[in-house]
Every structure is written in C-alpha cells, then in structure tokens.
Write a structure and sequence with these properties.
Elements (H helix, E strand, L loop, with lengths): L4 E13 L21 E11 L4 E7 L5 E6 L2 H12 L7 E2 L1
Antiparallel strand pairs: 1-2, 1-5, 2-3, 3-4
Amino acid sequence: MPETTVVAVVPSKVLAVGGEQHSGWLPADAAVPLDTPTRRVEFKFEVQFDGRGYLLCYSSSDGSLYGDTWHESQADAERVAHEEFGVQAHEWQRA
C-alpha cells in the first residue's frame, strides 16, 4: 500500500452532531423513538495524497467518530469537506 502524504489540515473544528429523527417502519401504535441527542464535538480534518488521489480524513477528538472519502483532486476533497461539514477554505492549513 502506498504511503500517504498530508497536504492540508484543519486541526480543530467544533461541530454539532446528533439530532437525527427516527426513520423506518414501526408497528401500529408504537411509541416513536426520541431524536438522538445533539452534542458538540471537536474534529480534525486532513487531506492526504495517496499517490493516485486524495483522501479526506476526519476524526473526533474522542475517537468515537471518524471516516474518510477518496477524491480525484485536492479541490474535490476540500469541496466535500465544505458541503458535508462546513469547513471553509480559510480554515485549511497547507502542510
């Protein structure tokens, strides 16, 4: 597996997570589950180059939430970070 290189980072961004409503089927007359609680969580974002494309990696400071997505360009990765997480262009620090 090729080694990745960090090309940009947002070291700290606090986001509200949770608040999802129940979706899916419930039996007739069943109680509707409450929305998931909303909490504020600190995240770190990185864009990494893997030799062929760019990974947008994100993780919460407590390690409970994390993931990544692959993109053909750094601009695409940063656009998705903006669309999905609200990361603004000025928040990125170039590595």
